[in-house]
Specification:
The structure holds 2 protein chains of 2 kinds. By secondary structure, chain A is an alpha/beta fold. Chain A contains 7 helices and 9 strands, in the order E-E-E-H-E-H-E-H-H-H-H-E-H-E-E-E. In chain A, the strands form 2 sheets. Chain A has a 6-stranded mixed sheet with strand order 5-6-7-3-8-9. In chain A, a hairpin with a 6-residue loop joins strand 1 and strand 2. In chain A, helix 6 packs parallel to helix 7. By secondary structure, chain B is α+β, with helices and mostly antiparallel strands. Helix content of chain B is 51%, strand content 17%. Chain B is built from 12 helices and 12 strands. Chain B has 2 domains: 168 residues, no CATH class; 201 residues, no CATH class. Classes of the chains: A alpha/beta, B alpha+beta. Chains A and B meet through helix 1, helix 2 and helix 4 of A and helix 1 and helix 10 of B.
Chain lengths: 234, 379
């Protein structure tokens, strides 16, 4: 999955995050240096509780860091007004969650269309675009199905479609295979590698599922709130 | 995102229907109780409203409401007639004698004795016969509900007789009088006959009914009569409100209805608020995901308000429909005739339920606003 570009999509330098105050203060991120390049599938791996989820929350702007800097595509989004930060996230970021977080009352196509709807696109147009993407992801027969009627793998593919539909520049996947069996997880990762990776886009996958490590272009190992080492696979 | 909000609302049928039912039930209860309350209060002055020939009711200053009167002197009628601007003024007797039927049924009644010459105050809505038949000797007009009370299960029929204080009278007409507060039969008779239906007292004139000359308003006429005679003169509308206010002040009716109305509001607020709050809490992950995706707090607030207002409107519409059916059925019954769903109650309860659903949604909005979008990453 190697590409001809190596521009940094994400650059974290000395990122710190703590929760609580005084004796109850917990340091979750202890000066994290991390990079994710466009055109690459970057894995962020490490044991549970090492700070992976907190780091991607900080990267995506869902949490504020307590120290250090985060740049997305060369810009420090923290310096933007709050509304601009949200708009930036809406335009440039896509998310795949461990528990999918699909809206149970919406069909697969409607769920996939949510980022477009949030951006103000008309419903019919948004759903049509989502359907076209779902066809590419192999869900052409399940587009009008509610999430409760989909298998875990199908739900995760809908979640992937939701992350991709607005063509974001950064996709963050949190344990995308954790709730899936090995074969399904493998096929979901294949789809992710085929569909999501793009020269102008970076994909960060948080996982501790070592069965899918072979999909990674780069791997950052994390432990106890720090990146212990990084490796370039391809 | 509006359709997303609406689909989220209707997605869980059980909760959605529960929410609709809570709002519909509260709406029904509120409209029902407030309309019945307004209807009962309105009855306290319904006989006043039925008199269409007079603008002003003149009474002794001690008379506070229709049911309980202190008699005027016969000379008071002449004093009222002498007030400038009075076109005409006639006397009105009001008493509550007992009427007996030949079959042995009896009931207290409200007898209105009309001026013999003009019959001003006679019922204008007649079911059978004519109010002008009152000019015939020993004749009375009974209202339909009163007739059915005195002659239960029997068809309406003229020329049947009643006995009142040893006076045998003939039913010469059956009217469609407004229901009285006491639900007693309403009997109209000529003044000279009506005074004999009760034990003779020195003074028996309860009211003087007056109408102003052209160009003299009822309010102005009432003021002139009061100033000139020292008597209490009230316009028809003022006197109706006097009666309503009397019952509001001196009976437990408003307290009883107030308690029910308060309970309905609390039930509506608590049940719909709790259901809506739980609905939001159970969708917090989804709201968190929307936040993460980039939906603004303002947009989420809009979605929740849209959900609340949609549920509120549908519940309100169902509740209003239920209330309309209820009153359509019961307004046909003799005992509850005239108690209708008033548009003021429909509007008032609508405003109230709007406030209830807004209040119910505030907790949900707060919960979503303080929600950390990063929680969506927690499995």
């Amino acid at each position: 999955m190697k590409t001809n570009t190596s521009a940094n999509a994400v650059r974290c330098a000395g990122v710190q995050k703590h929760f609580g105050e005084g004796d109850a203060r917990i340091h979750v991120l202890r000066g994290v240096d991390f990079e994710a390049k466009q055109g690459e599938l970057t894995f962020l791996v490490g044991p549970s509780g090492c700070g992976k989820t907190t780091l991607i929350s900080v990267i995506t702007g869902l949490l504020d860091s307590t120290g250090g800097s985060v740049e997305l595509f060369g810009a420090n989004t923290r310096q933007l007004p709050p509304e601009e930060q949200i708009r930036f996230r809406r335009r440039n970021l896509g998310f795949v969650f461990q528990q999918y977080n699909l809206l149970p009352a919406l069909t697969a196509a409607e769920n996939a269309a949510v980022p477009l709807l949030a951006a103000g696109m008309k419903r019919r147009e948004a759903v049509e675009r989502a359907k076209a993407l779902l066809v590419k992801l192999g869900l052409e027969n399940r587009m009008d199905t509610l999430p409760s009627k989909l298998s875990g793998g199908q739900q995760q593919r809908v979640a992937m479609a939701r992350a991709l539909v607005h063509e974001p520049r950064l996709i963050v996947c949190d344990e995308p295979t954790a709730a899936l069996d090995h074969a399904t997880g493998e096929s979901v990762m294949e789809l992710l590698a085929d569909s999501a990776v793009h020269p102008e886009r970076a994909v960060i996958v948080v996982t501790h599922d070592n069965r899918v490590f072979h999909f990674a272009d780069a791997v950052a190992h994390m432990d106890d709130g720090r990146i212990t080492h990084s490796e370039q696979r391809n | 995102m509006n359709f997303v909000a609406l689909r989220m609302l209707t997605g869980d049928r059980a909760k959605y229907l529960g929410l609709i039912f809570a709002i519909a039930f509260s709406t029904f209860l509120l409209q029902n109780q407030t309309s019945i309350f307004a209807g009962i209060m309105s009855r306290t002055g319904s006989q006043i409203a039925d008199v269409t020939d007079a603008d002003v009711w003149v009474m002794d200053p001690a008379t506070e409401y229709f049911e309980e009167t202190k008699a005027l002197k016969d000379t008071d009628l002449l004093r009222v007639r002498g007030v400038p601007g009075v076109d005409y003024a006639v006397r009105l007797f009001k008493g509550q004698p007992v009427a007996r039927t030949p079959e042995g049924n009896f009931s207290a009644t409200v007898v209105l004795g009309l001026d013999d010459a003009t019959l001003i105050g006679a019922p204008r809505k007649m079911v059978m016969g004519s109010w002008e038949n009152l000019r015939e000797p020993n004749s009375v007009v009974v209202d339909r509900a009163g007739y059915m009370l005195l002659f239960p299960g029997e068809p309406l029929e003229l020329n049947r007789t009643l006995e009142m204080n040893d006076n045998l009278v003939r039913i010469a007409g059956i009217s469609e009088a407004s229901a009285s507060f006491t639900s007693f039969p309403i009997i109209h008779a000529r003044y000279s006959a009506a005074v004999n239906f009760l034990g003779r007292e020195r003074s028996q004139m309860a009211f003087v009914l007056a109408r102003g000359q052209p160009g003299v308003s009822a309010e102005e006429l009432a003021r002139r009569i009061s100033d000139a005679t020292g008597l209490r003169a009230r316009t028809q509308n003022e006197f109706r409100w006097d009666c309503i206010n009397y019952y509001l002040k001196h009976t437990g009716i408003p307290v009883n209805f107030g308690i029910t109305i308060t309970i309905a509001i609390v039930i509506g607020l608590v049940v719909s608020g709790q259901t809506f709050y739980l609905f939001t809490v159970e969708n917090l992950k989804q709201f968190g995901a929307l936040k993460a995706i980039g939906v603004t707090n303002a947009r989420l607030m809009g979605m929740i308000l849209l959900q609340a207002l949609t549920a509120g409107f549908i519940g309100y519409a169902f509740g209003t429909g239920m209330a309309a059916v209820f009153f359509e059925i019961f307004s046909q019954k003799i005992a509850t005739r005239g108690i209708v769903l008033m548009w003021q109650n429909v509007v008032g309860v609508g405003v109230l339920m709007f406030l209830v659903v807004i209040a119910a949604s505030l907790l949900s909005i707060r919960r979503v606003l303080v929600l950390e979008p990063a929680t969506v990453f927690r499995g």
